[in-house]
Design goal:
The structure is a homodimer. By secondary structure, chain A is of the alpha/beta class. Chain A has 2 domains: 67 residues, Ribosomal Protein L25, Chain P (Beta Barrel), CATH 2.40.240; 157 residues, Alpha/beta knot, CATH 3.40.1280.10. Chain A contains 6 helices and 12 strands. In chain A, the strands form 2 sheets. In chain A, strands 6, 7, 8, 9, 10, 11 and 12 form a 7-stranded parallel β-sheet that branches. In chain A, strand 7, helix 3 and strand 8 form a beta-alpha-beta unit. In chain A, helix 2 runs parallel beside helix 6. The first copy, chain A, is elongated. The interface between A and B is large, with 36 and 36 residues. Chains A, B: Its EC number is 2.1.1.193. Chains A, B: Belongs to the RNA methyltransferase RsmE family. Chains A, B: One of its GO terms (cellular component) is cytoplasm. Chains A, B: It catalyses: uridine(1498) in 16S rRNA + S-adenosyl-L-methionine = N(3)-methyluridine(1498) in 16S rRNA + S-adenosyl-L-homocysteine + H(+).
């Protein structure tokens, strides 16, 4: 039977390896889920794939597990980044969760001319990504970067990574993803209100930027993120079976 | 200047038509937004497109507006239904909101063998769809149906409407939407835990059902809904420019 509990443990995973859950994890495993010696969980660390681990000692303050066997090798997502302008807290959390499920390799919050947020709890967003990976069966946790100005990021951008620019101003026009080349990409989603005229002019002039429309209705930023990630994964990513 | 307030008013919209907002709407327009005679809003009713209406009388208990001119004709979405098994309240609300933004024409909550929810507030979900249409600039509000058993719905299904079945059990396999025919479709999203073996066997045997995989990671139902709607809209719907 497949263990019901699936946990991210930032420790090496190999046969016979002992695992020491931290206090929060021990509380979850042994107080909330009431696991006892002999019970099994699934563990992953983002690098070594997914493993079965067996409880050897149950204690709300610590306890121990031993790694038994690998159930899956690590599956890295395609080389796709998501750049987005943070919005309301709940929707920002949601974008990080969805980007993890959808297989983004890196998540980069950016400040744009129309971004409201000046500060962002990177550690909290990283924890959200980790939790989403636990839930979606992923063996990889995307890195959430610190908030940085879009202009600064673009100034030092490696042009070999192309940017798929979801441009709200293009609502109604259409640009298909068909025919785009595989390789490193980043998806750029704007804030509510879109990009400023100066940002639009700058993005339009960059040779590595491809604008795309997401249909005739205005999408919220969180919807646009999932929609753009879907189209990219189906056309260029790991949904293609290639 | 484009009016900032955009409101669904279930009244006929035509030049010179007088509009009487209900009490909640009057409170929003005249108390919250503090609109005064001469101020303008955008109004739509889901049938007659989008219109500019001007306040003629401001009162928290009622007030009146007069329809000035049309800004956009009604834009109906493609003939696409979304069938989904209701999940936790917040995520169910979210699915209705997203399906509206993504241009589903009808939203049908279904009971499956693994659905938790036995009751659903249809009126509350319909209000969510309406609010989402106000936000996303849509001129159409999808109908949210009452909760009904999937088995009953399938028993009387019109086979000319094909079903795109997002099958969690197929995670890892791939089925592209390329080559599918245009026409009436419905997208079917399962609950957490997917479909029961009996449901899977039944769906697999129906000639109008096409299974599809949404990549190698397990998606939450709300993510899967947006992903499937994106792929369908880009391949067969109103994102294609056709």
């Amino acid at each position: 039977m497949t263990p019901k509990v699936r946990l991210h443990l930032d420790q090496p995973l190999a046969p016979g390896q002992l695992l020491a859950p931290d206090r929060d994890q021990a509380n979850y495993l042994f107080a909330v889920m009431r696991l006892a010696p002999g019970d099994r969980i699934l563990a992953f660390n983002g690098r070594d794939g997914e493993w079965v681990a067996e409880v050897t000692q149950a204690s709300k303050r610590g306890g121990a597990l031993i790694v038994v066997e690998q159930t899956r090798p690590v599956q890295l997502p395609p080389d796709l980044w998501l750049l987005f302008a943070p919005i309301k807290k709940a929707r920002t959390d949601f974008i990080v969760e969805k980007a993890t499920e959808m297989g983004a390799a890196r998540i980069l919050p950016v400040q744009t001319d129309f971004t409201n947020s000046e500060r962002l709890r990177q550690d909290r967003l990283q924890a959200h990504a980790l939790e989403a990976a636990e839930q979606c069966g992923g063996t990889y946790v995307p890195e959430v970067a610190d908030l940085q100005p879009l202009s600064k990021l673009l100034a030092s951008w490696d042009p070999s990574r192309r940017i798929l620019w979801c441009d709200e101003a293009r609502v109604g026009s259409v640009h298909s993803l068909k025919g785009l080349e595989r390789g490193p990409w980043a998806i750029l989603i704007g804030p509510e209100g879109g990009f400023s005229p100066a940002e639009q002019a700058k993005l339009a002039a960059l040779p590595f930027v491809t604008p795309v429309s997401l249909g005739p209705r205005i999408l919220r930023a969180d919807t646009a993120a999932v929609a753009a990630l879907s189209l990219w994964q189906a056309e260029l990513g790991d949904w293609t079976g290639a």
